[in-house]
Predict the structure.
Amino acid sequence: MEFQFETGEVLLINKPYKWTSFDVVGKLRSVIRKCLGLKKIKIGHAGTLDPLATGLLIVCSGKFTKRIDEFQGLEKEYTGTFCLGATTPSFDLETDPENPAPYGHLTTEEIFEAANRLTGTYNQAPPLFSARKVDGKRAYTFARKKIDVEMESRTIAVSAFEIIQVHLPLVDFRVVCSKGTYIRSLARDYGQILGCGAYLATLCRTRIGPYYLRDAYEIGDIEKMIKTNTGHG
C-alpha cells in the first residue's frame, strides 16, 4: 500500500488504552516526518477519545484535514461497561470511586428501562473532566484544580441504547449516538435514574459513520507500513 500523506490520507487507527488522541497524532506525525524527511506535515484527528477509552480514531493528513469537521459530524457507535453502586468525579476511572450505594435490589426490568429513558433526543451536561472549553480553557484544567465551573448542556441524540449483559454491579451496553454525546455523562445519568450511581468502567468506539473498528490499523502495524512504504523498514 502506497501512502500519499502530503496530498492527503485518511487513516483508521485503533487507539490504544491510556493513549490520548493527541498521542496518536503526535506519533504518526513524528514517523511520517522522519520517514519522508519533512519539516512539517498537516495532520489531525476527527473526534477525541478519552485516554481510558479504546477504539476507532480517524486521522487525516494533507488536504483531507479539511474533512475533519465532516467526519466529526458522523454518527458514532460504542460498546462498554457501566459499574453500578458508586460514582466518580470524572464519571470514569480517571478518578477514584466514591459515594457507595446499594444496587442489589435492582430488577432486570429496571436496568433495561433506565436505558430506554435515555434513548432519544435531549439535553446532556458534559463532564467537567473533558476537553470542552470554558472561558478559553479546557474544562479538565479546572477539574484537576477542583474548581467548579458551569458546563453548558447541549442537545444530543441517542438512537440506540442496548443493554447487552447484566452481571451486577457491571452492565455491558451498546450505544449509537450523535456528535457531542459523552458516554461518561450517559453513565452518570444512568446511575441517577437507577438511584445507585454509576460510572464508566470500559469504553470502545466501534464505528464512526461508515467506518468500522474492524478495518482499523494498530499503531505498531501502521508505523511498520509507513517505514516499509518509504524504504525505512
Observations:
- Residues 93 and 201 are 6 Å apart (CA to CA).
- The chain has six helices and eleven strands.
